[in-house]
Amino acid sequence: MKTGVSLSAFPARKGMPVLFSEATKENLETIKRLGFDGVDLFVRDPESKETRDALLGLEKYGLGIGVIMPAALAREGLFLGSSMHVIREEALRKIKDIIKLAGTCGAMVSLGLVRGSKEEEEALASFYTRFTDSCLELLKEAQPIGVNLVIEPINRYEINTINSLQECITYIKDNNLPIHIMADTFHMNIEDIDLTQTLRESLLYTKHIHFVDSNRLAPSMGHMDLESMYQMLVEENYQGYLCMEVMPFPDPITNATIGSNFFQAMKEKYGG
Ligand code: LER
Ligand code: MN
What are the residue ranges in the chain where pLDDT is below 70? Predict the structure, then answer.
């Protein structure tokens, strides 16, 4: 297993689960020194200087990129499942550019907040039809260059589609999509029932995990049994990232250090 932290190429807005804001020398040095293998990189413009500099910095420090996170597009009101054609087209155009970027650095691309919510009155099936069309369109870009797309289930207070991991597995199976899953234990803690068992059942599809405690801080700072989950992931030979997509509280270095100590202790006890 590999470990990571969330990093934004741009100054993170307050409230985002971004541990390190901007790919400064100090931040990259800290991430490396604490033993993390890489990052999930939040980008707002794949062609900007800030994004290019972040990629160069990560390469210089020998840090990988697990997933490129296009959550900033959702903030701009761009959604892959929108009922408005122009919005969907613009979201598709921008995510295709992010897929091309991911192809240059061996990363996956997340379809999380950017899938959007269904209209209050409409049936979930109508939303799914639009979102599935968008996924098929993105796969045309992603598959030839070997980029994996991952759907992230997100809790009901942020979005009203694909909230639980169980729903995500069903959606992918029903639509027979060559798409994977990014689980997030913070959202699972709100939406799923038997967390360790559900995560185990998802592993055929799950390629990346946001490994976060109940309060969206580093593992061991909240009340979740992340140790059992870690142990199960070792048993199942999970090879992907465990990424701390956490809030920067009380401050990034304290939070990252606590997480790094947790991963070190788990590795000594269970391997992985
Ligand atoms: C959203 O809450 C989330 O978990 C992120 O991965 C951002 O899309
Ligand atoms: Mn997440």
Answer: none
* Single-letter code of the amino acid located at 51: T
Q: Residues of the chain with pLDDT > 90: what percent?
A: 100
pTM of the entire structure? 0.98
Q: Where are the domains of the chain?
A: 2-270
Q: Which of 184, 185, 210 to mutate to test the pocket of ligand 1 (most atoms within 8 A of CB)?
A: 184
Q: Which region, left, alpha or beta, applies to residue 46 given φ > 0 means left and ψ of -120 to 50 means alpha? A: alpha
**Residue 157 burial by CB count (10 A; 0-12/13-18/19+): exposed, middle or buried?**
exposed
Q: For residue 100, how many other CB atoms are within 10 A of its CB?
A: 16
Question: For the segment 58-72, what is each residue's pLDDT rounded down to a tens digit?
Answer: 999 999 999 999 999
For domain 2-270, say whether CATH 3.100.10.10 is its number: no
39 within ligand 1 shell (Cβ under 6 A)? no
